[in-house]
Amino acid sequence: MTDNAFGTQLPTEIDTTIPHEARVYDYWLGGKENYPADRALGDTIAEHVPTIKTMARANRAFLSRAVRYLVAEAGITQFLDIGTGIPTAGNTHEVAQSLDANARVVYVDKDPIVLAHARALMDSTPQGRTRFIHADLHEPDSILSNPDLTGTLDLSEPVAIMLVAIMMYFRDSDHPQEIIATLLDAVPSGSYIVITHPTADFAPEAMAGVAAAAESSGITFHPRSKSDTSELFTGTTLIDPGLVPVAAWRPDLTSKPTAVAEAESAWYWAGIGRKA
Questions:
Q1: Where are the alpha helices (DSSP H) in 88-225?
Q2: Residue 256 DSSP one-character state
Q3: Separation between Cα atoms, residue 131 and residue 238, nearest integer Å
Q4: Rounded CA gap, 188 and 155, in Å?
Q5: Which of 155, 210, 222, 254 is most buried, with most CB under 10 Å away?
Q6: Residue 160: which of 204, 195, 133, 134 has the closest Cα?
Q7: For residues 182 and 33, what is the distance between their CA atoms, to the nearest angstrom?
Q8: Closest by CA position to 133, among listed 180, 79, 172
Q9: Residue 85 — pLDDT band, cuts 50, 70, 90?
């Protein structure tokens, strides 16, 4: 066990006999850090949503586009990436530092599987910096007060808070809006928040099956509607094109244009909000 800034103990043991959300996601992305229990749950979910691997990859591709926008167009060089997941190609610092070598990134995850791979997140350019914090978003103050965050990011300058495919693990009773408000209160005007969130808006029955499969395996999974997802951006102004299907958020100009039907086949809402 390890302690966060508030003395709360976080698990460091890895049990490969039960499915784990980070490893299931790694399986869908074609990674190798997953086990039979993870693959079994991933396949069960795929029975409800045959295109789930495509959706996971669309969500990952959005992260890259979002970081490129934030660095190249918004001038952001500081990132707080919460709910990092198992490192794979195109991590936030890799994308950001390919555009600005001075970019700084702090990663946060509570899961021991990510802690085990945290060293892969420390490969920074000489000019920039990366750090990993083992902490729980349910206690945002434990993140904000961590010396690895305050020693890496300058919270008097704009920061992009990345919450990509993480808020579905919070029920309404966990008060997700208050958690996000705490994070936003800690950063100045001109900062950004990036959120993707699975939804049942496009296929309610299929998403209900996904939620049931996850919950039966002990994994909280709470899809949200577009309206409920938009509430998570309270305190910010959504930049163009607003809250849209993840594949439709500023698709790369060099890529094939994304038709509406294709975009809605990836059941995530995605957006970036700017703090005034």
A1: 92-99, 112-116, 140-144, 147-150, 176-185, 204-216
A2: P
A3: 28
A4: 7
A5: 210
A6: 195
A7: 33
A8: 79
A9: confident
Instruction: Report which of residues 178 and 29 the model is more confident about.
Output: 178
Tokens for 59?
């969500």
Longest dimension (CA), the chain: 49
Q: Is 204 helix (H, G, I), strand (E, B) or coil?
A: helix
| Token pair in block for residue 189 | 């005007």
In this prediction, residue 7 carries a pLDDT of 43
- The label of the residue with tokens 């698709």 reads 251
The domains found in the chain, sorted by start residue, are 62-202+224-275 (3.40.50.150)
CB 58 within 8 A of CB 246: yes
Q: What is the DSSP string of 24-91?
A: HHHHHTT-S---HHHHHHHHHHHHH-TTHHHHHHHHHHHHHHHHHHHHHTT---EEEEES--S--TT-
Q: How far apart are CA 21 and CA 139, in angstroms?
A: 20
**Over 6-38, what HEC string results?**
CCCEECCCCCCCCCCHHHHHHHHCCCCCCCHHH
On average, the pLDDT of the chain sits at 89
> What are phi and psi for residue 270, nearest 5 degrees?
-140, 145
| Closest to 55 (Cα-Cα) out of 211, 193, 197, 162 | 197
